[in-house]
């Protein structure tokens, strides 16, 4: 019997890119696909792709995608034979896996017992130690008091890493270098762990210097077979979140691969693992990868975000394998049958602003265009016109490149990033492009601290005004004004004069006087000058030199007469300056108004009106997309106004605190 005969229908208990990914393979195999969606995702791409789709509640995940009861109710109503949880949300929830089994619905993943055994980092470390798998020194016990954990950190030796026991994706993780910073870091990690996973418990580990993050993809079936599908290197990280992943790992040697593969498969066998899973290791990268220089970190009992690089080098469809195993079939191949061809690299394209500390960015995708190039695969869950909301992970797409060599794969990835167009929310597109070109990453050695050490060179700080982008948008704005004036004049039949700004020779080839054009560029007032010559119009920006290189500038129109200029992956917002509709304080760059950097919830407020503060002092914390963002005082002063209160939702750019002299 085929997979579709055994599992004729599948409900995808997820959203976005991974939901689209699962639907594609399931549809190819002939399964009826069923989507569930929140109110925020009613028009989403994955909803359109599915054969059937059912609403499950409001936008907040806890009221929709994390509500197991609602999802199971839909599964029963729709007659789903199986449920694929994707990654995140309920994918590693043992109770949900168990409830599926009790309802007679196949859970496409490991048994609940394996999820429980590996789901908590502290218990997982204790378990794999019994299987002789090396673990990082640390405290993995139940005591959670700040005084006790602080003493444990002293015993382990700084720097240490605080990690939420139920964590993942970098959430609930804090590196601490000094004893005096431990208490605040612990509180923040516990709060983030509770918010993201409903569990505030943490463990404390020794922070490995020059760490490499290398993980092994494992696969097991219900017949006792367990294999690994080579390794992935995920060392390019920011705040413990993966940015670029690749397979195989650079510098990997057969002896280390064999040792890691054996440790990973032994860990999987120890819990009776079935399905796709990833065993993550931390390696000491100071002297290259060594058989005695890696330690177990955790096991992710689900499909990983970066699974496409494994698919690229092995030629396997991991979602198809998941469904095959869920249908009760054996894997059908042994470890010796697994071969790797070439090299693959994946970049995660996010709606975030590298120039502002990688703060999440939301809004409408006015333009979205990906290249169709050799060796390039695009996994996305959005299309032009969609909204990036503050409720979920801000991933726009995964861009995967495969080549015969690592250099070829990186070249292809860099070229694909250069040909990608995203207009609307700020993105890390230019940052990713620079990463693919960074000599230290290409030639190595590199570790998980590479991005932090090279953040300035990678553009992860405020950048100068992009004069070329502004000039291109200014010309577009002026053309709009001229066309609007001509249309206005044509509609008048009473002989009235045309609008005062419209030049009678607007579209003639005769020279015209220079025109001053007041603009608002990324919220800042800028004066542009337009001069007309026989060969066309030319824009100048006093005080700025315009780079007239060969880099193409893409333009996308946003609402309210705003144009978004995309130059080398970086976006510049340009609009005509209107003094009656602009926040003059913001346009002037006032340092006294501390605003919410993104749409989110104000979860903590540390000051009141009248308080004296010093530069760098914490004022408030805004939570967005399950991550905390601290607002600090830009200078010394006295708080003159507090505009928010804990628990309230705040819009991007909303005033939170006003700082007087």
UniProtKB/TrEMBL annotation:
Keyword terms: ATP-binding, Biotin, Ligase, Nucleotide-binding, Transit peptide
GO molecular function list: ATP binding; ligase activity; metal ion binding
Residue ranges of every copy of the Biotin carboxylation domain listed in the record: 6-456
Residues of the Lipoyl-binding domain: 585-660
Designated name of the protein: Carbamoyl-phosphate synthase subunit L
Organism (species): Bosea vaviloviae
Cofactor: biotin
SMART domains: Biotin_carb_C (SM00878)
Coiled coil ranges: none
Domain ATP-grasp: 125-327
């Amino acid at each position: 019997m085929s997979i579709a005969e055994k599992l004729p229908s599948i409900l995808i208990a997820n959203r976005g890119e991974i939901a689209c990914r699962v639907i594609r393979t399931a549809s190819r195999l002939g399964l009826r696909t069923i989507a569930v969606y929140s109110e925020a995702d009613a028009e989403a791409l994955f909803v359109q792709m599915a054969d059937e789709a059912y609403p499950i509640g409001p936008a907040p995940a806890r009221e929709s995608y994390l509500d197991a009861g609602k999802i199971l109710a839909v599964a029963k109503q729709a007659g789903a034979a199986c449920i694929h949880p994707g990654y995140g949300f309920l994918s590693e929830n043992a109770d949900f896996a168990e409830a599926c089994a009790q309802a007679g619905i196949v859970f496409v993943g490991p048994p609940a017992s394996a999820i429980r055994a590996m789901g908590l980092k502290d218990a997982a470390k204790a378990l794999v130690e019994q299987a002789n798998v090396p673990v990082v020194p640390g405290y993995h016990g139940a005591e959670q008091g700040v005084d006790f954990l602080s003493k444990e950190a002293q015993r382990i030796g700084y720097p240490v890493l605080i990690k939420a026991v139920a964590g993942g994706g970098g959430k609930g993780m804090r590196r601490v270098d000094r004893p005096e910073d431990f208490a605040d870091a612990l509180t923040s990690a516990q709060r983030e762990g509770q918010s993201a996973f409903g569990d505030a418990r943490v463990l404390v580990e020794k922070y490995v210097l020059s760490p490499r993050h290398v993980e092994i993809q494992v696969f097991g079936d219900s017949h006792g077979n367990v294999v690994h599908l080579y390794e992935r290197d995920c060392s390019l990280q920011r705040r413990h979140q993966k940015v670029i992943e690749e397979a195989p790992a650079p510098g990997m040697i057969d002896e280390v691969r064999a040792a890691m593969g054996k440790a990973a498969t032994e860990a999987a066998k120890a819990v009776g693992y079935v399905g796709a899973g990833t065993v993550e290791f931390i390696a000491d990268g100071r002297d290259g990868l060594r058989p005695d220089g890696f330690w177990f970190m955790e096991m992710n009992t689900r499909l990983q975000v970066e699974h496409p690089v494994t698919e690229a080098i092995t030629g396997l469809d991991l979602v198809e394998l998941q469904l095959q195993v869920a249908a009760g079939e054996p894997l059908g191949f042994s470890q010796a049958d697994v071969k790797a061809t070439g090299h693959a690299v994946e970049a995660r394209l996010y709606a975030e602003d590298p120039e502002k500390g990688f703060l999440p960015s939301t809004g409408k995708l006015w333009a979205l265009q990906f290249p169709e190039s050799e060796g390039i695969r695009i996994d996305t869950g959005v299309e032009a016109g969609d909204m990036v909301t503050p409720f979920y992970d801000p991933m726009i797409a995964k861009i995967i490149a495969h080549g015969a060599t690592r250099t070829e794969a990186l070249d292809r990835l860099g070229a694909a990033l250069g040909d990608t167009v995203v207009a609307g929310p700020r993105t890390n597109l230019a940052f990713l492009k620079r990463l693919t070109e960074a000599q230290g990453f290409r030639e190595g050695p590199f570790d998980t601290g590479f991005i932090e050490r090279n953040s300035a060179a990678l553009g992860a700080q405020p950048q100068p005004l992009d004069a070329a982008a502004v000039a291109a948008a200014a010309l577009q704005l002026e053309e709009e004004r001229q066309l609007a004036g001509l249309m206005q004049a044509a509609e008048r039949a009473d002989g009235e004069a045309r609008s005062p700004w419209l030049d009678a020779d607007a579209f003639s080839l005769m020279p015209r006087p220079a025109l001053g054009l007041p603009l608002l560029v990324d919220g800042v007032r800028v004066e542009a000058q337009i001069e007309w010559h026989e060969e066309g119009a030319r824009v100048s920006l006093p005080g700025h030199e315009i780079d007239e290189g060969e880099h193409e500038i893409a333009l996308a129109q946003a609402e309210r007469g705003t144009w978004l200029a995309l130059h080398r992956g970086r976006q510049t917002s340009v609009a005509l300056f209107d003094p009656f509709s602009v926040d003059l304080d913001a346009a002037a760059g006032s340092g006294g108004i501390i605003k919410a950097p993104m749409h989110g919830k104000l979860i903590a407020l540390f000051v009141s009106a009248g308080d004296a503060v010093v530069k760098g002092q914490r004022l408030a914390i805004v939570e967005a997309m399950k991550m905390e963002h601290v607002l600090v005082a830009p200078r010394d002063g006295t708080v003159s106004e507090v505009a928010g209160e804990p628990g309230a939702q705040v819009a991007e750019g909303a005033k939170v605190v006003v700082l007087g002299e």
